[in-house]
Design brief:
71 residues, mainly alpha, 2 strands
Length: 71
């Protein structure tokens, strides 16, 4: 196996979310930031359907947007 590729893959695998990722120009960092936000929202809501129940006291449910990157 090419050692330089292993080094790059290793760095990629070790990458973790950081709050500054939202302002990054890196696709990887932005992807981590968005994924972190989606997971956090779903975790806090306590369900896997990504719906916020009774959003802002209106009695209506709000969908958590699932947006991807434009290439």
């Amino acid at each position: 196996m090419d050692q330089s590729r292993f080094s790059t893959d290793d760095k990629l695998a070790e990458k973790m979310y950081e709050p500054k990722d939202y302002q990054s120009n890196s696709t990887l960092n932005k992807g981590l930031a968005i994924t972190h936000e989606q997971v956090s929202d779903a975790y806090m809501e306590g369900s896997i359907d990504a719906v916020i129940e009774n959003a802002q006291g209106t009695g209506e449910d709000a969908q958590i947007p699932r947006e991807g990157f434009e290439q």
